Amino acid sequence: MELYGYPLKAKFNQPRPPPPKVLPAASTVAANYKNCAPCHPESLTMPWMPNSYYKAAALNPTLAPLTENFPGLPPTKIVPFISEKPDGVFARHTLDDWHRSNMTNYKESETTRHNAERLRADLNRAIKDVYQQAKRTQGESTRNLGERINDIEYWKSELCIELDAMIRETNSLADMQKRLERALADTEGPFQVAHKCLLHREKRMGIDLVNDDVEKQLVTEIKIIKSCRERLQQCLDTVNAQLMCNKEARQELEKDLADKQMGHHIDSKCYQLKDTSRDIHFFKGVERIDATVSVPETWARFTDGNIFRSQSARSASAKLRASTESLLMGTADEMWRQFSKVNDAFTSRITETANAKSKIQTHLAKTRQEIFQIETKIQVIQKTIKDKEAQLKVAQTRLDERTRRPNVELCRDTAQIRLVQEVNEINETLRNLHQCLRASEDMLQMLVRSKGVLEQDLVVKNNSLFIDQERCMGMRKSYPSTVQILGYV
User: Fold this and answer.
1) CB of 469 within 8 A of CB of 155?
2) Which residue, 224, 455, 458, 488, is CA-closest to 339?
3) Which candidate, 433, 308, 306, places its Cα nearest to that of 379?
4) 372 to each of 437, 441, 447, how far by Cα in Å?
5) How many angstroms separate the CA atoms of 471 and 342, rounded?
6) CB 180 within 8 A of CB 325
7) How far, in Å, CA of 478 to CA of 445, rounded?
8) H-run or E-run covering 375
9) If you ran DSSP here, which 8-state letter would residue 470 be given?
10) How far apart are CA 401 and CA 395, in angstroms?
11) Which run of H or of E encompasses 357?
């Protein structure tokens, strides 16, 4: 770092350029500049530097005696140097040579610094490109693992749904005799659940208190349950042949689901690995090992075949049961269809509310992030203003100090002009920074106001989600189920 008014001593890594081969005589040079003014016009275009600036000598100084530099002569025979000029002046170079040498050294230093800056910029770009390439490659692998995990989760959900349906169907076949006796008594449960759902939904707040499709389906469900309770009859039938087929399909589903869970666990672990993870090691040659036994098409076809076989078994079992309990299934199916419609309406409404909540949370997070960034930017602007004020103090102090120069030294030189320009530029910059600060503070207030609105709306959506998802759907998932409606227990 170079302080103003106190230049450092110049240090040169390169040897000093040789002087011109032919130098003019000292008397000729003296005659040329004897009558010239001490201030040269071209010096106004040069950067200001004090007259005390000097360059290190090309020769290295030594503390050895002078006689060691002339070993051929004894000390007594060395003739001392005596100038022939009357005033003792012995000129070797002209003042123009001295100025040209200084300018050459300045340009060489500036060129070297420029090349060093370009080299640093190139190195920064190269390092950044390397990191970006590695991040992009690893990101693609992570994205592929994420897609694979999504595929596994999809098929796991399909297997779970099918397995649950198969378990229900198997239990239905095993408990056929017991279901019919309690069919009428169990219709009271769905009626109470639907009625309580209507009461719970009256506790919604604000804009969410709407007469939506869920409200209409719940009213319809209550009417259907009242009608079905009058028409329920008892019917008995025993089914044993289909139980073994259902059991085999269930075992295939459970085995496939266990494999999916293990694969999901392994891929999730791989997905979460990072450069800073502990469990990463070198496995030389592992990329050349191919232990796969399927491709995505055969992998999906295998699970789809298991689900299809399970669905076929369930369909056959359902048909077998339907042939012996047509009347019971008619009433139960009517109730269950409406029950499913209500659940679908609940699911759709919950999804809408959840999406609205998610969007509100997204906007709220973005708003909070923007608030943080605006606050950070305000701090940066304030620091910049503080720094600029310090620079302004320096420039104005310099101008103030220069007003104390005596007499003719009060020269409007390049330094004076540049200091005045610097003060004007800093003042203009400070005005712009203060305008930016005021605009940022106004925007911060708007963001805070928007955050408050979003937070209030988020409270309303959370309340609606709690009522529909936790209270209403919590009751509807636990009771009534298909088993209880048909009198399984």
Assistant:
1) no
2) 224
3) 433
4) 15, 12, 10
5) 14
6) yes
7) 47
8) helix 326-402
9) I
10) 10
11) helix 326-402
Helices 296-322 and 326-402 sit at what angle, rounded to 10 degrees? 140
CB 229 within 8 A of CB 334: no
DSSP 240-266: -HHHHHHHHHHHHHHHHHHHHHHHHHH
Q: Which residue type is seen at 311?
A: Q
Q: Within 10 Å of residue 303's Cβ, how many Cβ atoms?
A: 22
- Local structure of 121: helix, strand or coil: helix
3: helix, strand or coil: strand
Lowest mean pLDDT among 15-29, 93-107, 357-371, 430-444: 15-29
**Which residues have CB under 8 Å from 179's CB, separation 6+?**
172, 483, 486, 487, 488, 489
Token readout for 248 is 């085999």
> 480 near 376, Cβ under 8 Å?
no
Asked if residue 438 lies in contact with residue 378, where contact means CB atoms within 8 angstroms, the answer is no
- In degrees, rounded to 5, the angle at the alpha carbon of residue 172 between the alpha carbons of residues 169 and 175 is 155
H or E stretch covering 225: helix 213-231
At 439-462, the pLDDT tens digits run: 888 888 898 888 888 888 888 888
| Alpha helices per DSSP H over 403-481 | 414-465, 473-478
Q: What gap in Å lies between CA 461 and CA 48, rounded to an integer?
A: 69
- Strand, helix or coil for residue 1: coil
Q: Global pTM?
A: 0.39
Residue whose pair of structure tokens reads 């979460």 in the numeric block:
272
Omega before 480 within 30 of 0, i.e. cis: yes
The DSSP bridge partners found for residue 55 are: 10
> 296-300 contacts: CB < 8 A, separation 24 or more?
296/151, 300/151, 300/155
pLDDT at residue number 153: 92
- pLDDT for 409 equals 78
66 vs 75: CA distance, rounded Å: 9
Q: What is the DSSP string of 4-60?
A: TTBPPPB--SSPPPPPPSS---HHHHHHHHTTS-SS-GGGGGSPP--TT--B--SSP
CA distance 237 to 184: 17
Q: Identify the residue whose tokens are 């002046």.
A: 89
Q: Which amino acid type is present at position 177?
A: Q
What's the mean pLDDT in 167-175?
82
**What is the residue type of 226?**
K
The residue among 352, 406, 376, 48 whose CA lies nearest residue 214 is 352
Cα(180)–Cα(329) distance, rounded to whole angstroms?
10
The Cβ of residue 135 has, within 10 Å, a number of other Cβ atoms equal to 11
Sign for the pseudo-dihedral over CA of 229, 232, 238, 243: negative
